[in-house]
């Protein structure tokens, strides 16, 4: 954890200096720093996914639904990362469009769960 924060602080200081002397390289540098931070976090993300899958399987929840939830989480993370990179590059309009696209993709990916919820609701209403 300290490595990540250390890398972020060193990256921020380097970013400030680079912005002053060579602003055209700041976006590339920031992207590289973000990738390094992601590489540090990746093993923890894999561990989280394994735990969620294990708990989901142990609880009897369909693995299809667990995978959909994990996919939605991944879409959320990638969307936020991409949007933040656009904002840092001064492209706020592109960041907004990226966020919109991410939301639409996430909504489409969870449709099977929504369909199941509607079907369950109709069965409960019909049974009552």
Task: Please tell me what the overall shape is.
Answer: elongated
**Given the helix and strand composition, which structural class is it?**
mainly alpha
Instruction: Calculate the mean pLDDT score and round it.
Output: 89
N-C termini distance: 52 Å
- Poorly predicted regions are none
Instruction: Return the string of H and E elements.
Output: HHHHH
Radius of gyration: 20 Å
Binned, the helix content reads: over 70%
Which percent band covers the strand fraction? under 5%
Helical stretch tally = 5
Please give the largest β-sheet.
Answer: none
Number of E strands: 0
Concise synopsis of the structure shown:
The protein has 128 residues and is mainly alpha-helical. The chain has 5 helices and no strands.
Would you mind describing this structure in some detail?
- Helix 1 runs antiparallel to helix 2, helix 2 (26-58) runs antiparallel to helix 3 and helix 3 packs antiparallel against helix 4 (92-109).
- The protein has helices at 2-21, 26-58, 63-88, 92-109, 111-127.
- With 128 residues, it is mainly α.
- The N and C termini lie far apart (52 Å).
């Amino acid at each position: 954890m300290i490595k990540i924060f250390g890398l972020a602080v060193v990256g921020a200081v380097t970013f400030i200096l680079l912005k002053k002397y060579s602003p055209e390289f700041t976006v590339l540098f920031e992207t590289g720093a973000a990738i390094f931070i992601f590489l540090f976090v990746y093993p923890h993300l894999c561990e989280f996914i394994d735990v969620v899958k294990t708990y989901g399987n142990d609880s009897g929840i369909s693995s299809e639904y667990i995978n959909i939830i994990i996919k939605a989480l991944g879409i959320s993370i990638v969307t936020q990362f991409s949007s933040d990179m656009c904002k840092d590059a001064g492209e706020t309009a592109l960041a907004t469009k990226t966020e919109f696209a991410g939301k639409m993709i996430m909504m489409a990916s969870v449709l099977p769960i929504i369909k199941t919820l509607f079907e369950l609701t109709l069965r409960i209403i019909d049974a009552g």
